[in-house]
Design goal:
Helix content: under 10%
Shape: globular
Mean pLDDT: 81
Largest sheet: 9 strands, mixed
Structural class: mainly beta
Amino acid sequence: MLRTIAIASFLSGEKVQIDASNWVTITDVGNDAIPVAECSTTGAADNVTGATTFSGFVADQIIVRAKSGHEATCPINLGLYRIYTGSSVTCFTITSANVEFQNIQFYTDGSFSTSTFLDIRANGFKIDGCVFSDNGSFNGDTNLDVNAAGVSGIEITNCAFMYPATQAIKVTAAAAGGVLVANCSGLGGPRGIVQSGNGQVKVVNTAFDACATEDFDTTYTWAAGTDYNWSKDATAPGANSIHGTADGKTIDYTTVAGYASNLHLQGTSDAIAAGVGPASDSDVPTTDFDGDARSGATCDMGFDEA
C-alpha cells in the first residue's frame, strides 16, 4: 500500500492509486510546505494491505491522514478506510524523519504472526488520533515498534488500542527520553507498553486496563516526567498514577453493542480529572481523540476528555 509515496515527489492535487479502489491525494506541496497524503476508500468494505518503506523524502515532513469523513472511530468502522496486516508483514517502515500519521484505522484479525503495523526507525515520527484493533487472537504481532538506536522525537498521542497485539507499543531501541506516549487508551491484550532499556519512554495520562500479562512494562524504569497513568494492575508508573484494583477504582469505559468498549469515559469514571493538564505539562496534547479541548492544570486520563 502507498508504495509510490516512497519513491516519488508530488504536485498539489495529484492522485496516487494504491490498489483497485483506493487512492491518496497529495495536497499543499511547495517550497516549505508539507506534502499530505489523504486516504479514503471508494468501497464500503475495502481492506488495504501490504508493505511500504517511507524513506528518502525531499520534503522535511509528510503527513498521512484520513480524508474528511473517513477519520478513525473507536471501535473501528470496517466500512471506512483502514490498514490491515497480512501474515509476517510490516505495513510501514519509517526511515525518513518527521513522518506523521493522523486519524487512521489499523486492523488485524489476530491470526497473523510476527506482523507489525509501524516500524519506526527515524527521528520526529508522530502519530495522533489513530485506532489499532485486534479481534483478540494475539499471535506475535505489534502495533507500534520504535526500532532504531538513538532515535528521538517520537510522539504517540490520543491513540486507542482495542484488544492490542502482543504489545501495543514496543520500544526495541531508542534514545533516552526519545519516546513520548501521552493520553493513549488501551483495553485487553497481553501487554500495553514495553521498553528495552531504562528511561527510553515518557508516559503521561495513559490508561491501559486489563492486559493479561501486565499493563505497563516493569522491567525497566521510565523517563523523567512519567506520571498520571492508569492500570488495572499495579504497573502504572508515577507517584500520581492509579492502580485500579489496589486503589479500589474503576475506569468505566462506555460499552458498545458487539464490543467490550469504545474506550470513552463514562461520567462515573475515576480517570476523570485525574490526569495532568497541558498548563502543567507541555507534552500533554491540547485536544483529545474527538477534537475536544484539553486545558488547565488537570485533565482526564486516556484519549478521551469526557
